[in-house]
Specification:
This protein is an alpha/beta fold. It has six helices and twelve strands. Bound molecules: glutamine (GLN). Glutamine (GLN) binds next to helix 5. Keywords: Glutamine amidotransferase, Hydrolase, Lyase, Pyridoxal phosphate.
Length: about 190
């Protein structure tokens, strides 16, 4: 059984732990480099990417995370987590760092403000039937490089991308009872064991 961490610096950690357990992984929070070293894959939750970036720096996690992602550890980011996995942000706050891993350019808060949050059905490559996507101050992906694969679009915008062992969605499948996206990620982790 794969052991999958959820980066627990900030964001909706608990919901991901529950979704991963439902998708037959052993799930645990990860805050320190020693904990990161013990997991087979990692989820980066939704939350606030500038805060997450600051806390990753303060907790000495930025470089360990970059190194493991660059070494091919399977990683899945939702919303703020998608922003963390982008090689480039269009409108970063000053000092905002990303981990990188996916050759894409991301626009933060692209779908609007908190009160413009919405739910929509999204077709995701590799999953049968639509997934209910919860979009909360969600980013979209402005463009992807040649090695990144678009796996979902909504309203003409890229909302899910995969590149090698890295997966990212603008929306939050962990906030619905549907664990198919987490199951897809658990399969990616299993394949990399
Ligand atoms: N807008 C947030 C950010 O920039 C992301 C929102 C979310 O994760 N739900 O980090």
């Amino acid at each position: 059984t794969p052991v999958i961490g959820v980066l627990a610096l900030q964001g909706d950690v608990r919901e991901h732990l529950i979704a991963l357990a439902a998708a037959d992984a052993v799930a645990r929070p990860v805050r320190r480099p020693e904990e990161l070293a013990e997991v087979d894959g990692l989820v980066i939750p939704g939350g606030e990417s500038t805060t997450m970036s600051k806390l990753a720096t303060v907790f000495g996690m930025l470089e360990p995370l970059r190194e493991r992602i660059a070494a091919g550890m399977p990683v899945y980011g939702t919303c703020a987590g998608l922003i963390m996995l982008a090689d480039k942000i269009l409108d970063p706050r000053s000092g905002q760092e990303t981990l990188g891993g996916i050759d894409m350019i991301v626009r933060r808060n692209a779908f609007g403000r908190q009160n413009e949050s919405f739910e929509a059905s999204v077709e995701v490559a590799g999953i049968d039937g639509p997934v209910e996507g919860v979009f909360i101050r969600a980013p979209w992906v402005e463009s992807v490089g040649a090695t990144a694969e678009v796996v979902a679009e909504y309203d003409g915008h890229i909302v899910a991308v995969r590149q090698g062992n890295a997966l990212a969605t603008s929306f939050h499948p962990e906030l619905t009872g549907d664990h198919r996206v987490h199951a897809l990620f658990v399969d990616m982790v299993r394949a990399a064991l």
